[in-house]
């Protein structure tokens, strides 16, 4: 039983680390997208 609990705990810990990495990547992608939108909006304002 102790071995099962250890394996489950380790699995949950690794899944949490993987999720954090994924969330961080999504955050970077959204930041990049926001920067691109701002650039395009700035170009549009200058064209007027």
Polypeptide structure, described:
The chain has 48 residues and is an all-alpha fold. Helices cover 96% and strands 0% of the residues. It is built from 1 helix and no strands. The longest helix has 46 residues. The radius of gyration is 21 Å and the shape is rod-shaped. The mean pLDDT is 85.
The residue-averaged pLDDT reads 85
Distance between the termini: 71 Å
| Sheet having the most strands | none
Strand tally: 0
- Report helical residue fraction: over 70%
* SSE series: H
Low-confidence stretches: none
Strand content: under 5%
**What is the general shape?**
rod-shaped
Structural class, by secondary structure, is mainly alpha
Rg over C-alpha atoms, rounded to the nearest angstrom: 21 Å
In DSSP terms, counting alpha (H) and pi (I) runs of 4 or more, how many helices?
1
List keywords for this structure.
single chain, 48 residues, mainly alpha, signal, cell membrane
Summary of the model, kept short:
The protein is mostly helical. It has one helix spanning 2-47. Helices cover 96% and strands 0% of the residues.
In terms of topology, how is this protein built?
Elements: H1 2-47
């Amino acid at each position: 039983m102790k071995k099962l609990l250890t394996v489950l705990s380790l699995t949950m810990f690794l899944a949490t680390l993987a999720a954090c990495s994924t969330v961080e990547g999504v955050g970077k992608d959204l930041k990049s997208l926001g920067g691109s939108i701002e650039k395009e909006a700035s170009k549009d304002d200058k064209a007027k």
